[in-house]
């Protein structure tokens, strides 16, 4: 430390300098605390960070309430707090299902159209289009689903009342002077004695063992081997061969025959030799005289159906515009294009709001949930690359 | 779910005033409706005053939020759980009855196909469990209980009467009428679509190239 510094330190540590230092430090600390953001979210990954802030509805002391209502509106979320709505892993969104209205797609059983043009499997909230191809097929194409956040609440009420005029007195005691006087019991004999000796003892003994090799071709009981030369060979002269009846006396002979038969079974089989010549493999190629080939240069038929909604969330009473865009993206002309939209019970079609960019007949009919099935039948066939738009408006119930 | 403030909108008949309890006393700010973020599971005590045709009497309902909703980001306050205190419920409570309302989220496919201005509710019988019925109709989210019990001291009801005064988050009530979109006239919609630019492929088809069957002829479609 130089001599000049040694002289300067006592000046800096004077009481006036120390008070100035303390005041400056206090000002710096207060300014840092006041610049902290007023709103901060919960842990990352938690749903909806904007409602996870610390409670601001704690009633402040009198006098600290802001004038005109005492509201503490939440601060706008920071960019780092904007997260996607949470959903359980493995479940397709949006989640939960009961808070969203769905319109579009083909859920449940797939929609199909019979040859007599009856439509089956068009569930509520489904939107499909079907068309006819050149080769006579009727193809169904679903649209994409559109989800609108529109929860609606109901209530179940239970009213109960306390009846104060009714009073139930509890019993103080039970007076029961009559008890059981006598018990009468009948004893049943526990055993019985057989006095008569058995006159005859008849018993039978079953065969100890029975080994047979009957296969699928069971031995016939009725047919004797008349067709064979010498009828029965010596080893065949058994009751089981002759009549199909097993006799105990033939057990030993039968066992020997079976044993002999077993010797000849296994891998020893009848061999066939044809003039000592080995059989040669013969391959024959036969082809049809005329080959008919159908060469269809047209590609597959394909209709793309896209559905969009004007808003993704709506309160009851609000209006939503739906637009269905359909394009022939296949390689052939299609016809009888029909667009079907089975509306949810929460969607009320605004009468007269439908419109179509292509000539189409519009009809509607009531569905099973009290809403409507909208149907546009495009009048003209649709060439490759052609498309159209239908649009309608619904009110959220 | 812990720490999440579920927005709840409490409505009372026109003229009635609602206040929430915080820190051992009722909020001096009275309003109707009230929009507040409430924690799941704690019981909130409300005070309803200035009841039409029953001025001078007060009802102290309790509200218990038992489940939450999952609105899109930034839309939580716009889609609150709606709890309605009807005039009939308030009068039943004043007459000594005990009213329980279980608010549930309707299943969209099972909802009644009508536009309701007020919340639809069902009555269950004396021996029936309203929570069980609500669970059959949808997803229960809140329970409102209302009787004739009043605190001994209205100015200082005490934490026991207020169930500990759980914290809440007051939110401003949005003006729905200002956000309501107008229904467009039909003629304007038709003209706007006709005037919209079309793609080249959108041309009208008036003939068909050698179909095996007449695809242009519309057959009867039944469903």
What are the low-pLDDT stretches of chain A, counting only 5+ consecutive residues below 50?
A: 1-8, 32-47, 54-73, 213-226, 259-273
Distance between the termini of chain B: 46 Å
- SS strand fraction of chain A: 15-25%
Please work out how many helical segments of chain A DSSP would assign.
4
Largest interface, with counts of residues having CB < 8 Å to the other chain, equals: A-B, 107 and 107 residues
Class by SSE composition of chain A: alpha+beta
Describe the strand arrangement of the main beta sheet of chain B, using strand numbers: 3-2-5-6-10-8
Q: Indicate the multimeric state.
A: heterodimer
Give a written overview of the molecule.
The complex is a heterodimer of chains A (397) and B (223). With 397 residues, chain A is of the alpha+beta class. Chain A has helices spanning 3-12, 15-34, 239-242, 251-263, and strands spanning 100-103, 112-113, 119-120, 127-132, 138-142, 146-149, 153-160, 303-309, 319-328, 335-342, 347-349, 355-356, 360-366, 372-378, 387-396. A 5-stranded antiparallel beta sheet of chain A has the order 5-4-10-14-13, with no helix packed on it. In chain A, strands 8, 9, 11, 12 and 15 form a 5-stranded antiparallel beta sheet that branches. In chain A, strands 1-6 form a two-stranded antiparallel sheet. The model of chain A is unreliable at 1-8, 32-47, 54-73, 213-226 and 259-273 (pLDDT under 50). By secondary structure, chain B is an alpha+beta fold. Helix content of chain B is 13%, strand content 26%. Chain B has helices spanning 87-94, 130-137, 176-179, 186-194, and strands at residues 6-11, 17-22, 25-26, 34-38, 43-49, 62-65, 81-84, 98-106, 120-123, 138-146, 168-170. Chain B starts with 5 loop residues before the first strand and ends in a 29-residue tail after the last helix. Classes of the chains: A alpha+beta (397), B alpha+beta (223). At the A-B interface, strand 1, strand 7, strand 10, strand 14 and strand 15 of A face strand 7, strand 8, strand 9, helix 2 and strand 10 of B. Strand 7 (153-160) of chain A pairs parallel with strand 9 (120-123) of chain B, so a sheet runs across the interface.
């Amino acid at each position: 430390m130089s001599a000049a510094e040694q002289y300067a330190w006592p000046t800096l540590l004077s009481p006036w300098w120390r008070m100035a230092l303390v005041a400056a430090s206090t000002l710096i600390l207060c300014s840092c605390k006041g610049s902290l953001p007023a709103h901060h979210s919960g842990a990352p990954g938690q749903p909806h960070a904007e409602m996870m802030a610390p409670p601001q509805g704690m009633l402040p002391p009198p006098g600290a309430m802001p004038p005109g209502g005492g509201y503490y509106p939440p601060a706008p979320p920071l960019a780092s707090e904007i997260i996607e709505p949470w959903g359980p892993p493995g479940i397709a969104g949006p989640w939960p299902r009961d808070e969203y209205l769905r319109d579009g797609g083909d859920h449940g059983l797939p929609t199909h159209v019979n040859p007599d043009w009856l439509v089956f499997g068009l569930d509520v909230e489904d939107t499909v289009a079907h068309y006819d191809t050149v080769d006579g097929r009727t193809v169904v194409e679903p649209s994409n689903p559109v989800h609108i956040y529109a929860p609606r609440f109901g209530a179940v009420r239970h009213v109960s009342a306390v009846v104060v005029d009714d009073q139930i007195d509890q019993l103080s005691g039970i007076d029961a002077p009559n008890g059981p006087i006598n018990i009468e019991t009948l004893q049943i004999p526990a055993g019985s004695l057989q006095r008569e000796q058995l006159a005859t003892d008849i018993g039978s003994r079953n065969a100890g063992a029975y080994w047979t090799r009957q296969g699928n071709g069971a031995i016939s009981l009725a047919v004797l081997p008349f067709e064979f030369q010498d009828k029965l060979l010596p080893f065949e002269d058994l009751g089981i061969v002759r009549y199909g009846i097993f006799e105990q006396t033939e057990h030993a002979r039968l066992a020997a025959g079976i044993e002999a038969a077993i010797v000849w079974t296994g891998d020893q089989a009848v061999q066939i030799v044809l003039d000592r010549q080995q059989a040669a493999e013969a391959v024959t190629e036969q082809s049809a005289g005329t080959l008919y080939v159908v060469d269809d240069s047209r590609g597959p038929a394909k209709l793309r159906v896209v559905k969009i909604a004007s808003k993704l969330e709506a309160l009851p009473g609000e209006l939503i515009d739906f637009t269905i865009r359909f394009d022939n993206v296949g390689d052939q002309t299609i016809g009888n294009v029909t667009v079907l939209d089975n509306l949810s019970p929460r969607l009320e079609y605004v009468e007269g709001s439908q419109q179509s960019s292509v000539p189409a007949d519009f009809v509607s009919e009531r569905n099973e949930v009290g809403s409507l099935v909208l149907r546009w039948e495009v009048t003209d066939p649709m060439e490759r690359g052609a498309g159209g738009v239908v649009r309608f408006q619904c009110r959220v119930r | 779910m812990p720490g999440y403030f579920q927005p709840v909108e409490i409505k009372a008949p026109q003229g009635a005033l609602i206040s929430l309890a915080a820190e051992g006393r009722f909020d001096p700010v009275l309003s109707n409706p009230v929009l507040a973020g409430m924690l799941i599971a704690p019981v909130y005590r409300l005070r309803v005053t200035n009841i039409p045709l029953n001025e001078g009497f007060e009802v102290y309902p309790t509200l218990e939020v038992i489940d939450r909703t999952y609105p899109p980001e930034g839309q939580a306050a716009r889609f609150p759980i709606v709890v309605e205190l009807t005039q009939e419920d308030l009068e039943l409570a004043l007459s000594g009855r005990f009213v329980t309302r279980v608010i549930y989220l309707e299943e969209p496919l099972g909802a009644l196909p009508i536009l309701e201005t007020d919340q639809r509710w069902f009555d269950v019988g004396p021996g029936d469990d309203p929570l069980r019925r609500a669970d059959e109709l949808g997803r229960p989210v809140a329970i409102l209980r209302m009787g004739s019990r009043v605190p001994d001291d209205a100015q200082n009801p005490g934490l026991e009467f207020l169930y500990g005064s759980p914290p809440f988050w007051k939110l401003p009530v949005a003006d729905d009428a200002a956000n309501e979109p107008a229904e467009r006239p039909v003629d304007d919609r038709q003209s706007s679509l006709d005037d919209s630019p079309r793609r080249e492929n959108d041309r009208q088809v008036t003939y068909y190239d050698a179909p095996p069957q007449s695809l242009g002829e519309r057959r009867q479609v039944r469903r």
